[in-house]
Amino acid sequence: MQYRYVVLGAGRQGVAIAYALAAFGHAERIILGEIDTETARQAIRRLEELLPPGQCTLSATMCDVSKPSEVALTIAGADVVVSAAPYRFNVALTEAAIAAGASFCDLGGNTQVVRHQLALHDQAQATGVSVVPDCGLAPGLGNHLAAHGVQAMDEPQNVHIRCGGLPVEPVGPLGYKLVFNFAGLVNEYSGYAEFLRDGEQVRVPALAELEPIEFAPPLGTCEAAVTSGGTSTCPETYAGRLRTYDYKTVRYPGHFAVIRALFALGCFDEHLPLEDDTTLAPRATFRRLMEQRLAYPDVRDLVVLRCTVSGRHEGQPCTRTYDLLEQHDETTGFTAMERATAYPAALVAFQQARRVIKPGARPLEVAVPAAQYLDELPSHDIHVTVSR
Question: What is the pLDDT of residues 132-172, one digit of tens each?
């Protein structure tokens, strides 16, 4: 059976999602909704070059995701809508998908937004469609792996997720290249993370609790620090069942010291009042600088993900470790971050299209069958090593 998908957003992740749906998701038709018509045209041209002729029908339409009328026209007739738009639009897009009778998933990144989406459970269930937010890399794949480990143990106790998108070697003043949207990066580095500690839900400041972490070559010694959003709804779901659930972002040594200093200096503030009644916009300026100075288009990226689940099984101590090392794909040109974010989300959409996921709005750790998801990841060209 073939399915009809709509992908909202034709940027880096949107194109990679569309490719994965066409290559692996039994797509009959894929529509890219994008406000920038030239971006949309370039995306379609790239997909046509990558995919065999006649694999599926590809088209693009101008769609401003802030305008409900345009969204409704774009998603009409879709089996599944996948949002690669900024997370602030996802509640309205979820409502539009439910109204259109289409299932919905997204790349998420903001847990408060997700909670508003999950409040639409009754409407989604009544319509017969599924809603699964936060389906990218982190939040997303890391939580899928955690759910798999939790379900595989009689007495799961602790979950630790460590994940990072990095240049293959440290580069520039931050040892880092910008591998996804600046706003998403600042969102991760700001606010609080939601964790489980001693079985209780707690909030931990972003950029806190720096720790060293070791990986096999080519990475070696790295560092990890608390960032927001990566746990999504899992601490709430597992409260009272697990003792610990936490997430930290991985970077090369020294990165977080510089980032902390930049925050302390106000480089990420929205506005800075001056004595002459004028204001500066540090974040807008710094965004431009980072997008220009940290692009490094000739430097390849990688994604590292480690999820460790420990507890007891059949009366014995048990630890399961899930490792992913994703590289830039020279054949398709998709970066490691694009692949590791888009392909897992495309697998959720494919499961929604096949009705593997039940109707309603549920978090992924509840909605997605973890064992089947892990089994199907290789068919979406994502390969996780599991050790015990």
Answer: 999 999 999 999 999 999 999 999 999 999 999 999 999 99
pLDDT digits (tens, 9 = 90+) for 37-95: 899 999 999 999 999 998 899 999 999 999 999 999 999 999 999 999 999 999 999 99
Q: Which residue has the tokens 């949207």?
A: 181
Domain co-membership, 242 together with 362:
no
Nearest to 100 by CA among 129, 120, 136, 121: 129
Q: How many domains does the chain have?
A: 2
Confidence of residue 181 (pLDDT cuts 50, 70, 90): confident
Structure-token match 């000739």, residue found: 298
Same domain, 159 and 41: no
* Prediction pTM value: 0.95
Answer yes or no: is 387 within a domain: no
- Which residue is listed with tokens 């009366």? 315
CATH number at residue 322: 3.30.360.10
Helix (H, G, I), strand (E, B) or coil at 222: strand
Print the domain residue range for 221. Answer: 141-329
Q: What are phi and psi of 300, to 5 degrees?
A: -75, 155
For residue 237, is it within any domain? Answer: yes
What's CA 58's distance to the chain center, in Å? Answer: 24
